Amino acid sequence: MEVLDKSWIKRPRNSLEYAQGVSRFIEFAFAHHSADGTIICPCNACAFKKWLTRDEVYDHLICTQFPIGYTFWFYHGERSIGETSNVSSSIFSDVQQNSMADEQHPMVEVDSIRNLISEGLGVGGNIKNGTPVITNEVIDGDAQRSMPSESHESLEAKGFSELLKDGEEALYEGCTRYSKLSFLLKLFHIKSLCGMTDKSMKMILELLSDAFEYARIPSSFYEAKKIISKLSLDCTKIHACPNNCMLYWGEDENRETCKVCNRSRWKTDKKKGPAEASSIIGNKKKKHPAKVLRYFPLKSRLKRLFYSSKTAADMRWHATAENKDNAMRHPRDSEAWKRFDLEHSDFASDPRNVRLALATDGFNPHGTLSANHSIWPVILIPYNTPPWTCMKSTSFIISMIIPGKKMPGNNIDVYFQPLIKELKELWVEGCDAYDALTQEVFKLHAALLWTISDFPGLGTLSGWNTYTGLACPSCNFDNIPHRLNHSKKYCFMGHRRFLDQRHKFRLNTVQFNGRQETRLPPRTLSGSEILSQVENINVTFGRREEIGRSGKRLRTGGTVEGGGTQQWKKKSIFFELPYWKSNLLRHNLDMMHIEKNVCDNILYTLLNDSSKSKDHINARRDLQEMGIKPDLWPRENGKYPPAIYTLNNLGKKKFLTTLKNVTVPDGYASNISRCIDIDSLKLSGMLKSHDCHILMEQLLPLAMRTGLPDEVSAVLIEMCSFFRQLCGKALSAPYLKKLQDQIVLTLCHMEMLFPPSFFTVMVHLMVHLVEEAQLGGPVHYRWMYPIERYLGHLKSYVRNKAQPEGSIAQGYLMEEILTFCSRYLENIETRWNRPRRVDDEPTHEESNPWLDTLFPQVGKPLGVSSYFTLTATEKLQAQPPRSYKLIDMC
Fold first, then answer.
1. Distance from C-alpha of 716 to C-alpha of 23, rounded to nearest angstrom
2. 362: closest CA among 348, 380, 378, 381?
3. Does 562 score more than 50 pLDDT?
4. N- or C-end of the chain: fewer Cβ atoms within 10 A?
């Protein structure tokens, strides 16, 4: 019997290889195992339960994917060739004795559960006779120092054997389709994907255990969760000072009071005093910490990526995939990544070493109408993985959950201490990990490339003050702050300095700020130069209460010695990483919020909104004070003439009507028309960031043509084109140079049109976006859209509003297990095979695979089908040109 090629199983269904493979499989099955002209259909719908004819099986396998894990065709006559499964001998023998006509599950699931358990516990390559062989090489150094190797081995072996027992134990006597563990995993997947509550799961389990008394189904949700949690990775609780002064860990682990503000570590009873003071000897009350940081150790999570045979290959993608056209499609193509590899060649020599990005932002877990509460999850993103998985939520690793109720602000470095310590260990010493792809133990290292946050978050992480006239971190101190006295805000103009020195706009004083521009563009400072600026800044972290002169309590954040407002608020804790100062890009400007703010400025200024427009009476007084654009100065009666960019009522109606009548595909954007009020000629609702993204790049260029003069619409369309091109999936270095020249000229034209109050710091930051794209690669790896969506997902975990951080931690730990397990499960909807929100897959495919490859069918018909006869002219028009000679379509 010949060895069959089964690589076609993982090929797309519309490929020629897949169609030929299905035909070979059917021929093999009918030659070796058929009954009355039928065979068992292995498609996901039939699930090895139905005996069908040749044509029916072919149709099913063409319309649905062949089971990926069914590579040993036991049900179709294969006995001793091909890829045999590593199946438990006891279960395999039981299945062999059963009739092929019984409704049984394929043996690949038993093998998948066994692989899931072994790889989930990190013993994938070290199993003998069903028992894990634990070597000290794959145990963390901390674990080796904390316990003898014998006790660790016994604990690991015990946990493995318990899970293995649950994985091989039949759900009920004689059941070969589900084991106890696989049934619970699929049940928990349903709970997670459908958003079921814990109480609903408890009631379902009670009903199932009562209805099927002989089934091995836990009777309580607690017992079921206890079985699943054996695959969980650890989470450490670290007590923190409620004033964000310090963490009770390391040398300070046993302290009872804060060493900075002297506040108690424990919660206090307002009536009875501190909890420890109210304790009674012999009947001690349990002390509750005032604040808890939940930290998720990084080493174990990175090692699991290599333990799993499903993800080990993806962690090498950045080094193995080719880049034929030298375009930037991934951070590995960026200048910052390449410079990092050149300066740290030892780190770059092993493609398994992990590059990480850190993202964080705060959110209110209770909703906008409840009391203020700000939780800050810290998320790590591994950049080793390919583009189609890199920025998905299933690839995110939560590092810590910084508790509320108040945002940490400048004191966020206090909570970063455990992560920075672990990152330094991963850089210097590394940790031993097992590679499932090569089946060897290697030394795993990791490095942090940059951070992702909104603009205020950038100030929190870096220590740069983003609320002054020097708010731009890229320009640094090479800028002249300009405060508008009447508008009472800083403006950020002067983009002529980015032009060529011989450009005519540099000498133009009338249409700009009344002065000639002779400055050179600001120089981008290196990490070493930034470090020299912050080297001598000493900060005392914490939030302490002080009594002001008026008798009110004042709260002060991290205090800089010397007092006063300083541009640098601290020396960032990230500089403790040995390589941080050599990184070309350390903190990213967020494209999402920049685009949102620019869109708001344009929309409300064009519509002359009374509350949000950047063109108002104070803005005109600022023009008069600066002595520029006299035709726009306010009159004596307090009114001011309309500007060229201000829409009249007819223009507003045309503009808003165009936006309201635009129809976009389902899921492309929210219903923007609901925000438009034609009667009052206003945008009456809140536009979300993604709506502004669609407006800027797709809809505004269309709408502005109807109501604005050409000189205004041309400039704004150029700006919209800039955002659209910068958000492309592929970027090239020569094209980015042209894009930089385009945005500088566009900003200069906007300075000639709009008042100085229009140019907030978010408008100014557009000039630095191209430079960051050159350093960091495509923007969709460095903006906040996937992070914001993930924070909304974490918000759904909050069931106990008294303990929101604990609810999020428990929900994440359970989701982490299910995300890992979903790679090994078949015949159920998981995070990796979920259908799209709108399933446009065709219900039937043509039998000719060559035709499907050239013309793949997208979409499916709606409603009742109808038949009609084409006229001779219509047939002629429908016929393809003779030069193609593809196929006779008639």
1. 57
2. 378
3. no
4. C
